[in-house]
């Protein structure tokens, strides 16, 4: 499969954009390939600028649960844009979107919109600190919560992909306020809260980590986080930027029945436009300016075009509830892959929750970041490249999730299995 135009576009981009990309996850260096430049996409398929067609399992890193350019979404965006792209004043649809989110998330009494997941988590952490009057935060190895200063320690996503333990540019004084624990280790949580509980403003977790590859929480782990926060008077923040409306309308907290104090959202709730939101218990949210003293603001927050996209997606999801169908299709893919790997004697496991999954080339299912890191990354690179050449686009990193959309069909799953079997025969 020729990608000459992508290569040329990359060579050109490198001269004007650092690394040739506006987000590190878009380079293909960790899988030993050159980045693909996209030209258009519809439904489950993406076309590159050379005209190659791919079954897309990146789907804008999970934002596109309805697939690319879903008509109900593009229609809503067009209609909103024609009425004015940004006002700098409030609009009724912002409340409508907040109400739709509240309907899906009983833990959210009120919600504020921002422009990215990074901003959502950064703001939620500030709010937790302002509310509790405490400074330290607890996060987990391999958890990714955007790129704000205090959250880059031992983070997943691009930092995992490129082996960056923490980022230069983050002062030690800030990094030292972040306590980093292994995921799925209740003992570590209990010990830390016993020792530092009086200083801990919040425990921040992806309730289903998806930025070290997908790593489901073990039975009872989220409950341990809830209890630890109750004991220490800390705020429990679930970062559901990926999992919100992905694994269930009410996210991982619905799936596992654990209620956080604050929730951060992003990706799906903007339908592919830049978005983030955070919300939770009224008593905490009321500490935000203008009613309270914790400051947080945004020129374009709650932008009418973004909000219209969010409303269109959430209405579609709440009205059509595609989750069972997604589960079935993703289950078929998982089973097919397992069978193919087993038949070929290939050491590989699949971690999956609903429509998100990761293929790890390792002998056992990773339950934390160090397990995930011990997977054969070079093997993932070979798998990635073979799939790419067969017209199947998986994320260009072992440490990212793959996503199905409502537009993927059984035929697309078959195409993957055929390609995987052909690769395994070689
Ligand atoms: C993507 C992601 C973020 C960051 O969102 P951006 O919109 O990229 O800033 C934060 N947390 C989680 C769990 C994410 O997956």
* Overall domain count: 2
* Mean pLDDT across every amino acid position: 96
Strands side by side in the biggest sheet: 4-10-9-8-7-5-6
Number of contiguous helices: 15
The name of the CATH superfamily of the largest domain reads: Type I PLP-dependent aspartate aminotransferase-like (Major domain)
Give the names of the bound compounds: pyridoxal-5'-phosphate
Could you name the CATH class of the largest domain? Alpha Beta
Based on secondary structure, the structural category is: alpha/beta
Helix content: 25-40%
Strand content: 5-15%
Describe this structure in words.
With 426 residues, this protein is α/β, with parallel strands linked by helices. It is built from 15 helices and 14 strands. It has a 7-stranded mixed sheet, with helices on both faces. A 4-stranded mixed sheet has the order 1-2-3-13. Strands 11-12-14 form a 3-stranded antiparallel sheet, covered by helices on one side. A hairpin with a 2-residue loop joins β11 and β12. α7 packs parallel to α8. It starts with a helix and ends with a helix. Pyridoxal-5'-phosphate binds at residues 116-118, 121, 144-146, 206, 211, 239, 241-242, 266, 276.
What are the key terms here?
single chain; 426 residues; alpha/beta; Aspartate Aminotransferase, domain 1; Aspartate Aminotransferase, domain 2; 39% helix; globular; binds pyridoxal-5'-phosphate
Write the layout of secondary structure elements.
Layout lengths: L3 H13 L21 E5 L2 E4 L4 E4 L14 H12 L9 H13 L5 E5 L2 H16 L3 E5 L17 H4 L10 H4 L2 E4 L4 H11 L3 E6 L15 H12 L2 E5 L11 H6 L5 E5 L9 E5 L1 H4 L18 H17 L2 H22 L4 E5 L2 E5 L8 H5 L3 H13 L2 E2 L8 E2 L6 H16 L1
Parallel strand pairs: 3-13, 5-6, 5-7, 7-8, 8-9
Antiparallel strand pairs: 1-2, 2-3, 4-10, 9-10, 11-12, 12-14
Helix pairs in contact: 2-11, 3-11, 7-8, 12-15
